[in-house]
């Protein structure tokens, strides 16, 4: 492989912003990619993928390169040298790579790879927690799968098209996709492409949404004409799916505590042609009180650690802190306690997260069921998706029935 200095310089600059300035990886990469308009899609792909790879394996690469944070420019170049050697490429004869100890890098890699914390690059506290919650074997398999690059998955917007038609239209634009019978509205890109630039996207024929995430809205068993609520709607990934499943009939009440996210949701709903979504900002407890026992189907897509979606946000591994996890678990329980009251007798509620930790998932549901607010609910079913087993992001979902 022939390397270009300016692409590796772009990678080093992105890493500096992420590791030393605390920027989010996707934002830092986007900013760097805007820098040089001559960069084509391959160049952009190289910078993005190399940066993400080094973010994923920061702990391993830093130990091999024998560098510590905060990384100076020479340290960051050493991280890229480790990446080049471990990918099996020849190190370019550039000043920054002068005297790169290729054999030592390979030897160190073999030595450190026997330890999961290094092999999969996991902070100590998180490794301890994961082993405790999932058991050593499952944790190791899952962390390895979560370090792989995620597929780009589309959800056909059935308000506008169907999977087969969309697949043909994409093919006409030289975008090849694969279907998966487990996920009926999903199309998986055979090769990465910037699908956001297509007219098909601009005209609302699809959303970009992981296949695992596409199982959540159907799990709520909505029907046309029902009154559904997406309590933690964010920018509306699941609200849009619910509207499509309800064929634009009935109502989807989408709530969040952030105005900006609901604003983005409305923009996406217009593009998708989803007309039955109504947004409501949660700025007081009154919003929930007003809906007391009025909702047929409640989705709680709760805020969480995001450990199931590490393939998309690998820097979350380095940003997560134990205190944040404690706070988010408390928030999850509060949300269950306060929102569950909106469900009608005989109505259903789905509690979902993009976490793989039982303490954010089944244990939260158990705690809720044992509480006063949960005493008139019954757990009907639950499902976990794991990256190493199911091939997509990690999710948890539980379906509960309000009995009376
Ligand atoms: C997992 S994200 C939702 C993702 C979204 N459902 C989607 O599919 O794109 C969780 C959301 O919960 C929101 N949130 C946090 N606390 C909340 C609360 N008390 N009530 C409602 N939403 C809350 C966050 O702002 C965030 O948008």
Automatic annotation (TrEMBL):
Keyword terms: Methyltransferase, RNA-binding, S-adenosyl-L-methionine, Transferase
One Pfam family of this chain: RsmF-B_ferredox
PROSITE patterns given in the database record: SAM_MT_RSMB_NOP (PS51686)
Domain SAM-dependent MTase RsmB/NOP-type residue range list: 142-403
Xref: InterPro entries: MeTrfase_RsmB-F_NOP2_cat, MeTrfase_RsmB-F_NOP2_dom, RCMT, RsmB-like_ferredoxin, SAM-dependent_MTases_sf
Gene Ontology biological process terms, A to Z: RNA methylation
GO molecular function, one term: RNA binding
CDD domains attached to this UniProt entry: AdoMet_MTases (cd02440)
Active-site residue list: 354 (nucleophile)
Gene3D superfamilies the record matches: Vaccinia Virus protein VP39 (3.40.50.150)
Record-listed S-adenosyl-L-methionine binding positions: 256, 283, 301
Family affiliation: Belongs to the class I-like SAM-binding methyltransferase superfamily. RsmB/NOP family.
Protein name stated in the entry: tRNA and rRNA cytosine-C5-methylase
Source species of the chain: Nonlabens marinus S1-08
